[in-house]
Structures are given as C-alpha cells and as structure tokens.
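Cross-posted from the bioinformatics board.
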Amino acid sequence: MKKYILKRLFMVIPLFFVISFSTFFLINLSPLDPAEVVLQARGTPEITNKLIAQTKEELGMNKPLMIRYYNWLIGCLHLDFGNSYVGGQKVWAKIGPAFLNTFKLTAASLVVIIVFSLLLGIICALNADKVVDKSVRGVSFFLTSMPSYLVASILISVFSIKLDLLPTSGMDSWKSYILPVIVTAISCVGIYFRNVRSSMLNNINENYVLYERACGLSENKVTMHILRNSLQVVVVIFCMDIPVILGGTVVVENVFAWPGIGRLCVQSILNRDLPVIQAYVVIISVAFILFNTLADIINAVMNPKLMEDI
Amino acid sequence: MKKRSKFYIFTVLMCTISLLVGCGNSEGNNNKSSNGNTNTESELTCAVVSDINDINPHLYLGSMAAQGMVFESLVKNTKDGIKPSLAESWEISKDNKVYTFHLRKGVKFQDGQPFNAEAVKLNIDAIQRNKERNSWLKLSTKIVSCDVVDEYTVRLVISEPYYPTLNDLSLTRPYVFISPKCFIKGETKNGVSNYYGTGPYILDKHVANKYAIFKANKNYWKGVPKIKKITFKVIPSGETTLQSLSKQEVNFIFTDASGTDSIDVDAMNNLVDSGKYKIVRSNPMNTKMLVTNTTNKASPISETAVREAIWYSIDRQTICKDILKGTETVANTLFSSNVNYAKVGLKEKKYDLKKASKILEQAGWKFRNGSKIRNKNGKELKIQCYYNDSSLSEKSEAEFIQNSLKEVGIDMKISGEESASLIDRSSSGNYDLLFDQTWGLAYDPQSTIESFESKAGYYYATSGISDVNGFYKKIDEVMVSSDEKTRKALYKDILTTLHNEAVFIPISNGRLTVVAPSNLNGISFKQTQYELPFELMSFKK
C-alpha cells in the first residue's frame, strides 16, 4: 500500500516539471514585451524606450530564458511566484487570500454536492424509472442546463430582495455562503447524481448482488455493498472536479462579488499581470494533479486489485 | 477500529470545513446595521467595480476617487479657474519661470506631521526623481527646483514659461502631498508605508478586492466632513450592484464617464421611482469620439474626405436619445464649450447622408460594377473600427454607425476588445477607427493636445495631417505663450485644423452620473470625472 502511494506521489514530480515548463514558456512566447506590459500594468501614462530598458534591468528580464525559468521555478517551490506587475506586491500575498476564499466556497459546495449527489443518486437508482426517478432527473436536467449567472440572479431577487433573508453579495457572514454554494452545487449535483445512479444500476444486476440476496442478507446491507462498489467511479469524478470547481467559480464570484481566485485571474488577464496568471495556472494544475492522485489512492484503498497495475 | 478511524477522518474533515467557512465572519460586518443593510442616515456605502488598489498618489495604480479623498494639491481646478487649496496664494515672476506659493498655516497631515514648505519640497523632489514615469505631464520635464523660502513659502522654478503649470499642479496625481513619514528610504516611487495625506478622509481599513473604509478626518482644515464614514465596496457585476442598491446594502454609485457604463439606465430610473434614490448628473465632463488613424496611408481613413464623410454620417441625436437614453448630450466638436479656450465658433457638421455621399463622390470614391461598397483605383472603401467590449453602449453605437456608413457605401467592420488591447492599438497605430474619449475638464485642452506628439497619446491620429510640423509647432508655442490673446489665437488655429481635418470625430459629451439616497444633499462635481467631493455632502435632517 505504502509502496503504491509513494509510486503515485513520485509520478507527480515529472508532471509538475512539464506543467511549470509549459506555463513559463507559453507565457514567454506571447508577442508582448514583458517590460512594456509591466509599465502598462503600473498605469504609466507614457512608455519610453528608456523606461522599458530600465524596467528590464529592474526585473532581470535581460537574463537568458532558461536562467529566468530556473529562478522562477526555485521561487515557485518556496511559494514565491515573484512580484505582481500591478502593485508590485508578492504574487502570493495577492493570490493566497483569494485562493483561500475560493477554497472555502469550494469546500462548502463540495459538502452539499456530495450529500445531494449520493442521496438523489441512491433514491433514483432504487426507484429506477418510477415517477420519483423521472421527476428528479427532469428537474435536475432543467436546473443544470440553466447558466449559473441566470440561476444566481433569480436566487438573489427571490431570497435577497423579495424575501430579504440573505445578503445579495459579499463575504460577510455564513449567510453569504448560502446562495453562491447553491449556484455552484446545482450545476454539479445534476451531473454527479446521474453518475451515482447509473453506476448503482450497473451493480444491481451483478451476480454478487444476486448471491447476497440468495444468502438472505438484509436489503440495507445489499444496498450498502452496491453503493460501495458504485462509488469507485464517482470518487474519481468527485476528486477530479474539486480543481474544476476551484478554477471555474469565476461567474459565481463575479455575480456575488466573492473575492476569489477566479475573479483575480480574470482581472490579471485584463491587466496582463503575467506573474499572477503564471501562478494561477501552476496552482490550479498542481491541484488537478494532486486530486487526481488522491482519487487513484482512494480507489486503490477501496479496490486493492487496482494496485497490481502499477 | 477501521470504522472508528473513518469516523475520525470524517469529523476532522467537517471541522476543517466549518472552521474555514467560519473564518472571517466578523469581517466587513462593521459597516452594516443589525438588519444587514447600510445605515443610510449617516454613512455612504459606494459600490465600485474594482479595488482601490495601491493609492500611492505619486504613482498611477490607485483609484483616483480614493486618492482625491485622501490627498490634496497646492491649488485646485474649479469651473471658475484655478483657486487656492493647500497654497493660500501665489505669485508668478515676470518671466513666468518662478512660482512662489504661500502655504496655508496650521494644516497637518493625517498622522499629525505638519504640512509645511519642507514637506512640499520633499514630495516634489520625490516626484521629480521619478521623472520618466511622470514625463507624460509636461510640467515634470520643466521643473528645475523646488526651494524652501521659509516655513510656509516655497518657490518652484521651471526651465521655460509654461502656462498650464497651475493646471498641472491641480491634478489628482502626481503633484499632491503625502506625509514624509510615509516615504520609504526617502522615496515614494517604490511604494509608501502608509497613506496619510491632508485630505478630508482617512483610509481606515482596506481589504483587497472586498472593501475600503474611509473615515472623516477630524482635523481637516476646512472642518470635519458631515459624512463620517464612506465604504467603497467592490461589486464587479452591474446587475448585482443594482440588486444591492435596491436592498440598500450599498446606497451610492457613480459612473465615471470613461465608457465603463455597466449599469442599465432604465434600471437606474426604476430605483429613482422607488423614492429611495435620486440621480444627479454633471455638466459635460469629456467628449466621446472616434479617433482616426491619419498616418496609415494604406487605409482610406488617411483621406480627409473619408473622415469627413464618416463625420457627416453619424446621427448623434439618435445615439444620445435612443442608445444613451438621454444620459449624454450631442457633441459636435472635439471639446465642449465649457472647456477653456474651446469656444472658437467651429462650423457644425450635422448628420447629412447626402452630403457624406457627395464628399465621397468628389474624392473619387464611386459605386462601380453594381457593388454596394464604393471603390477607387480598384480599392474598396473598407475600414476597421475597434470598441471597448466592456462598455454597454459602445457596441450599440458601433453597430449603429456601421449601419449608417453602409448607406453611403462605406464598409466598416467592427470588433470589440479589452481596454489594454485598445491601448496597444492606439500606441502602435494598428487601427483605422477607435472609440475613445478626451481626458476630462481638468486635462482639456492642454494635456490632451500635448499628447498629440507622443506615441502613447494621439501621434497616429495627428501625424498624417497636412503641414503636421507647423501644427505641432503651434502646440509647442501655445504651451509657452504668456499672452492670453496669442494663446487664444493659437488654440483657435489648432482646434480649427483638427476640426477641418476631421481627426477626432465627436459623438457625445460624457457626463458623470451619481445615484444617491434621496435625502443626501450637497452633491456637486469636481472638474474631473474620476472623483467626487464627498466632503461637501450631508444628509437632510
């Protein structure tokens, strides 16, 4: 087991290098002169050649690309992603709090997503093709296909303005979490409960279920076994989706004025704040790798047969 | 054992999540009354699209609205001309090269440091050491020295006469004063340790991308402002701003006239109908216009006739009435008549499609072989126009103009881009037509006109006109002119050339719109679209 986990973690290292390398080089391939970008981002009204040269010197942009990559990489390993072009403060000082805010939103949403996906998935699988199943699928299909900004606007006007129960935006108290979490969860629950449902339906027809029933196991126990076997696929999807939610909350963040990483990234793209964009790509990619690895490990724990493949 | 460990993992996970979610519960609550709404009777909560950022007044990153609340200049620009601010009076030497300022006595920075000649010198010297970054403002290239005469007198020496000196000193940045205690190693160009100015408000708390709280400066030299607390709350989406206004989580907004009009006009009017709010609009602040590229000889836009035909093809009345819903007024000249030196009696070029067609015919642009697009020497009359895609109105205006131009046989392609990309196009000359606006009353006409020779300014718009050297020479002359009559004559020449060459095609005059609680008095405007004098506002008792 330990060996498997170590192997999986070891495989993360080359992947990290590939990602950091491509992030750094792709951004450096852009036709923009970084020094000019810095000056524009700082709001310098008139950019002269002398200023460009001065900025290049100041930021070490005169050095060869590989040396700059090396310095940046060493910095990244210490969570030092350099200085923001806008404001000049450390990138981590900017991205850290924003990341934490998005992480809080993601964590709260995830709890809601897991609870509701499992609950609805099990209910629908056990009542397959009955009215309950069809209506839950119908409603969720409708909700999932609605764009999140529309769902958000409707929820705000109903719960914040008409009923005056919740704040319209901001991140002031636990109440501020309710609407953004619902909006984030709605689109995901609609997809995941279907995965749970179909995975359970596949398992229901397996021989082991028949055998367990033949042995006289209680229906609750049989359901638990089916659920456990069905979860393998779902765990992978859940884990893979954590970074998707982390990186995909930008619409929710904009509508609810949530000071998260998505909004910061869009702002940085508009301001061409390249160090922040680089850091964002690296952080989200690392999140993808880590959660993917985590999914593999959880799966291996649940189904030790998988460990033999490595 | 196995079950127990799973239980522990679950408990730890749930605790972590609740802790994370619970963190920061108290943040930002302090600006709310118990029902979660803004206390509308004594404070203002203003929705802003983006964070105030680093408000170091000697750099250009921060929100000008915030900088204007915290920092002040020696003199201020009003509609009646330059008036005293931190300087009570001043004298200008006969050769117009030495300005002696007598400072207001008893003024203190917000950290208790005295505002005196020494502080002025330290600030101006720090700004001058960052000359390159401030070089867009011509005054910064002309200051020779700033000397302390006595505790409350400073002398500013410039290298040659420069008539907009006082105008430039009145701008929101960079010639404003921050407490020397905030300097880092005697400099401000690499950041400052705090933001203490002499202004009516003190920046009390700032959480990036969330909010900034300003408290009234109890020692303000003009008296304590009536509104004791102003919060700038960051709400990026216009729709959410409106909803927050109707719930009174915020109770104040102002749209800068720079094209970032994210709030729907009809929705604003609905708020007023509810009785909670009122709308106040300023006089024209700037001119929204199409900037042409006269330098690109490969494009038809370099021909005066084509530019003039476009000018005549724009129905400004309809744009202002239907697209801008009456929030802006028709502009027929580059600068509106309330801009200094701009009342020069230029010929109005009204919407007239027949005239536009005639001008094109005379210039040799004709319909040939049944084509609906005019052509000349085998070249079709095609141009490319760019607009800011974050502006609600610019896209509609561009589409409307595109349709009008089609009627006179001009094929205009339009494309929306983000503002950084538009700045690139403007400074590299990679465009035919570009939506833009003049810099505003505090900068017009002098700063806008001075930027004609600079690539970061309007070089590509102006350098293709006939006798461009003579034109630029006049600009240089007007800046050093000391005689009012000569200056007026020079400005008349400059503005007439621009008008006749149709370099800037005006569309509308932008105004600043404020949505404020209906019981808020004293809403007035400065000479700039970026700031408001909050210190003059008060609630009706």
